[in-house]
UniProtKB/TrEMBL annotation:
Residues 621-764 form the MOSC domain. The keyword Transferase applies. Keywords: Molybdenum cofactor biosynthesis, Pyridoxal phosphate, Transferase. Signal peptide: none annotated. One of its GO terms (biological process) is molybdopterin cofactor metabolic process. It comes from Trichoplax adhaerens. This is MOSC domain-containing protein. HAMAP family: MOCOS. InterPro entries: Aminotrans_V_dom, MoCF_Sase_C, MoCo_sulfurase, MOCOS_middle, PyrdxlP-dep_Trfase, PyrdxlP-dep_Trfase_major, PyrdxlP-dep_Trfase_small, Pyrv_Knase-like_insert_dom_sf.
Length: 764
């Protein structure tokens, strides 16, 4: 039931592929190829056969290229990082070996150059960390500079490393066959021109004895396009096999041209790579066969054997890679054309698509669409919100910058100062901060694979239309008339009242039902005992309501007078547990809080014992344990209120100490859901009242009165003698879509919230 649109991230694997591989493992014994027994020899033979099959897939053979197995494309690039020789004593032969130095050219001081295209994966850019210790010039070029040989698009980082007069200089030019950001394909004809110094930065001095090598990053390209190494001959080609047919992961290769292998100089040596070495003297002799020399330790021989069934599956489904290319591009073009047709009620486009391609030619464009979404006023919609809604629709896509900050920066129109500003504002790669000052920090990418279908595209377009295309809804009364402008949302509500505290709700056990009180003490982590317990599975990972909706049946209560936590559930006798345990620190256990916004946080907790475990396991019908947060657990809030303020410590809450929601604002959301259902002719909403809608947000404080969404601008609130600082908006996503009564997922609240005003409810 999943619509998978992240094929550039990883291709899908086939059922037959896994079944046939498993049968192979059941029927044969494979052993360490470094051994010399019969099984080892058979394993080694199959590994060598796979090297030949890989070269055959790329229309070449061992006369021209060698395959060095790695853990992936990034590991292949690291070999270049560690081994590429930028300076080599000059020798007349094609091989870069130690030879007699030539005299002359004393006046010259030529520096080697590492040149890379702006549109490169981060793993390629990482080579410059080693380059900076050896090279005089690091050059980043954009596509226009390469095509026009115009120096205006060339950015140099110069490092003076002294005279290199009598050395042969080895330069390296790195570019992708296909952008992993936009799917743009770069000309393979560049390879020969670069090697013949016809297409190199004009700031580099050219000498006859120097060499230009080409590193072609083909990891993205090979997943759907044919790479002909018999026709185009780059010197180094890093690949990952999971991008080709999904399995195995953790296996890639560096395909090296034979006449370029000697420009690499092995530094580190591991098991299996040497002929001999002396332990008491500094002497080592490496093996002469390239893959024997560079494959440190035992290769992943079982994974290498699995490649056979990946190639078999690919060939069984598609005639050849040209057929894969045509199929994937047809779906991509169909999707692109339908995305262009999506407009809001005022004819403003929904999709802002990055790149210059019109998707008319698969020679220049791969099966990738990179975009952001706009509302009816032209404001960007955060990509994190799109991703979370897509998950509700079981649509898998990718968001962020895709480990390609260069092209991301260019496409989004960000300067280097802008990137630094985003970083200083708290944004890092892989987080959920999607908009800063209204501008996107990344984008959305969908990619088509050889197992994709036109139905996948249709489901994706339907998702965009249902969730993000804005429509006009006629209001039945002036009281709830909604006017949206480009900066904020105004609600014309008659006679706004003064906000008052309506309800106080505790959630003692994370993701279980709430416990409503009239008054409650405040502790160091927020409301006393709020979210102080969590239910964990056998692996120690905290369960949440989305994973286990039956948790809502558990009704915790706190008896302060008797110092008890009481757990109730219909049909089960109540469980009474102490509010504290007199237990030394050495009995505390460490468990992960959750796998969402606090992913990675470790929490010291106390196991509440077998009685609690048996009670909860009976209710949830799975083996679980109850963990209480230990007093020494120190988690801090995720939102920063001021650089000068000490960050408050957290309970097991995701983001902040206390969550607040306005029932006045929730009323507008409730009416929007009803109108949206009527407009879309959907079934009647299962949300019966505004209070039941508020309960889905699992807020601690529910206020009533005032203007809807006035809380957006609040800096603090005061309730009685207690003053609370507003620390910022809290993203509530999947939880509000879970119907507590039926334990099913209904997307209406999140869809309405996105259409109405974005993502904000507030935390304190």
């Amino acid at each position: 039931g999943v619509t998978y649109l992240d094929n550039i991230g990883s291709a899908l694997y086939c059922e037959s592929q896994l079944e046939n591989y498993l049968q192979e493992l059941k029927g044969q014994l494979f052993a360490n190829p470094h051994s010399r027994n019969a099984s080892s020899k058979q394993t080694l033979q199959m590994i060598d056969q796979m090297r030949d099959r890989i070269l055959d897939h790329f229309n070449t053979n061992s006369d021209d290229y060698r395959v060095i197995f790695t853990s992936g494309a990034t590991d292949a690039l690291k070999i270049i990082h560690d081994s590429f020789q930028w300076h080599a004593p000059y020798d007349n032969s094609d091989s870069m070996v130690n030879g007699n130095r030539l005299e002359g050219d004393h006046a010259e001081n030529i520096q080697p150059c590492f040149c890379y295209l702006e549109d490169n994966h981060t793993s390629v850019i990482g080579i410059r960390q080693a380059v900076s210790r050896h090279v005089g010039m690091i050059t980043c070029v954009d596509i226009e500079a390469v095509e026009t040989a115009d120096s205006t698009g060339i950015h140099n980082i110069e490092i003076d490393n002294g005279d290199t007069t009598n050395c042969t200089i080895n330069h390296l030019f790195a570019y992708p066959a296909q952008s992993n950001f936009s799917g743009r394909k770069y000309p393979l004809q560049w390879i020969d021109r670069i090697q013949r110094t016809q297409l190199v930065p004009n700031c580099v001095k050219i000498r006859e004895k120097d060499r230009w090598y080409v590193l072609l990053d083909a990891a993205s390209y090979i997943s759907t396009s044919p790479l002909d190494l018999g026709r185009y001959k780059p010197d180094f080609v890093p690949i990952s096999f999971y991008k080709l047919f999904g399995f195995p992961t953790g296996l890639g290769a560096l395909i090296v041209r034979n006449n370029a292998i000697n420009v690499l100089r092995k530094q580190y040596f591991g098991g299996g790579t040497i002929q001999t070495c002396l332990y008491h003297d500094d002497f080592v002799s490496f093996k002469t066969v390239p893959h024997d020399r560079y494959e440190d330790g035992t290769v992943a021989f079982l994974d290498i054997i699995a490649l056979k069934y990946g190639f078999d599956c690919l060939c069984g489904i598609a005639r050849d890679m040209d057929a894969v290319c045509n199929h994937t591009f047809s779906i991509t073009r169909y999707t692109y054309q339908n995305m262009l047709k999506l407009c809001h009620y005022n004819c403003e486009p929904l999709c802002h698509i990055y790149g210059e391609s019109d998707y008319s030619n698969s020679t220049h464009q791969g099966p990738v669409i990179n975009f952001n979404l706009l509302d009816s006023k032209g404001n960007f919609i955060g990509y994190s919100q799109v991703s979370k809604l897509a998950e509700m629709y079981k649509i898998e896509l990718r968001t962020g910058c895709f480990c390609n900050l260069g092209q991301c920066q260019k496409s989004l129109g960000l300067s280097s100062a802008g990137l630094l500003h985003n970083f200083q504002s708290g944004h890092i790669c892989g987080d959920d901060i999607d908009l800063i000052d209204g501008k996107p920090t990344g984008s959305i990418r969908i990619s088509i694979g050889y197992l994709s279908s036109f139905e996948d595209s249709d489901r994706f377009i339907k998702f965009l239309e249902e969730c993000f295309v804005e429509f006009l809804v006629e209001s039945e009364s002036k009281e709830d008339n909604i006017e949206i402008d480009s900066k904020e949302i105004h609600f014309n509500v008659l006679k706004p009242s003064i906000p008052k505290l309506q309800r106080i709700v505790l959630y003692p056990v994370k993701s279980c039902n709430g416990f409503e009180v009239d008054s409650w003490p405040i502790g160091p982590r927020g409301l006393l005992y709020d979210r102080s317990w969590m239910i964990v599975n056998e692996s120690g990972v905290c369960l949440n309501l989305k994973q286990e909706p039956k948790m809502y049946n558990i009704r915790p209560k706190i008896n302060l007078e008797d110092k008890l936590l009481i757990l109730d559930c219909e049909g089960v006798q109540s469980l009474l547990l102490p509010l504290s345990y007199d237990m030394p620190d050495q009995f505390a256990i460490s468990a992960s809080v959750c796998q969402s916004r606090v992913c990675g946080d470790k929490v010291n907790g106390i196991d509440c014992g077998d009685e609690a475990s048996l009670w909860l396991s009976k209710v949830l019908q799975r083996t679980v344990r109850l963990i209480m947060q230990h007093d020494n657990s120190k988690r801090s809030t995720k939102s920063r209120t001021s650089n000068d303020e000490r960050q408050p410590i957290l309970s097991l809450a995701n983001t902040a100490q206390i969550l607040l929601i306005s029932s006045t604002s929730a009323t507008i959301l409730y009416k929007t859901i009803l109108k949206m259902n009527a407009f879309e002719k959907s079934p009647v909403s299962t949300i019966a009242t505004v209070d039941s809608l508020c309960d889905r947000f699992r807020a601690n404080l529910i206020i009533q009165g005032g203007q809807p969404f006035a809380e957006d601008c609040w800096k603090y609130i005061k309730i009685g003698h207690c003053r609370f600082t507003i620390t910022g908006p809290c993203t509530r996503c999947h939880i509000i879509c879970i119907d507590p009564a039926t334990k099913t997922i209904n997307k209406d609240p999140l869809k309405a919230l996105m259409k109405l005003r974005g993502k904000k409810v507030f935390i304190m």
